[in-house]
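Ticket #4471: structure output looks truncated?

Reporter: J.K.
Steps to reproduce: submitted the chain below (283 residues) through the standard prediction queue, then opened the result file.
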Amino acid sequence: MIKKKQCFWIVAAISLIIFFKIDVCQALSQDSTELARVNERVITRGELNKKLEESSKTFQLQSPTKKTMLDDLIKRELGIQEALRQRLDHDPEVIDRMNTVLYHALLEKNLAQDFEKIHTTDDEAQAYYSKNPDIRTSQIFVALRPHLTPEEQKQAYERIKKIKDTYLTQEKMSFAEAAQRFSEGTTAPMGGDMGYQPKYQLDAHYYQIALKLSTPGKVSDIIKTPFGYHIIKLTAIRPWEETDRTQVKRMIFEEQRTALFEKFMNKLKRQAQVSVKQELIKD
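Returned output as attached by the reporter:
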């Protein structure tokens, strides 16, 4: 087994194999004049020109010379051939990383153009934001650690229910005071104040419940998320005029990109045979 420090360079060398045939075929269609040979592998003028064109997009001030680029192609080919000679393409760790390269190459080939077509106008962003605004909330929180027994979960629920019934419902103290005294987590010293947060930074269920409160000052019932039990107080909704519009457009982009990704993956699932033993992965 190879060391992890070496694996990056090995994967980088071998990953070139994935795109190697594509590059060669395109180069041959332009100019198949032989410029160099590494064992049985021919490096053509067309291949060199393609690499020079690609490098010009990266090096704005000074592109590599033809001689330098050809030398790089020769070194690359020497590295690939040596990696194959050492059978590094059969190493399990390299195979795993190569599969990751293939996976991302697949997404790039099939989805990159669709991603580039995603554009959002200011009006579209404002319409989206009206339904998904940044919100400011405070919370009283009781954490649920992983792998709790049903009895331990019940005890956690009873703790937060007692806070609600004894101190909030009977108005013996303010929400902020109750949060400071009884809430868990980093927000407790601030009276449970979470500050302004966009939709993507909050648990989906937490965000939906908080947004449904609608009016600042309203308090939710006890809710459960993967993190624990919460009582939420909506304290403010940031107006459109004060929000970061670039961030809103980025949120829209991420949602649309995710939708395209899921559509593509669902298509692959329908074409394959996938089975999951759900009983073995219960939380």
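Triage note (M.O.): checked the attachment and the full token line is present. The mean pLDDT is 89.
Status: closed, working as intended.
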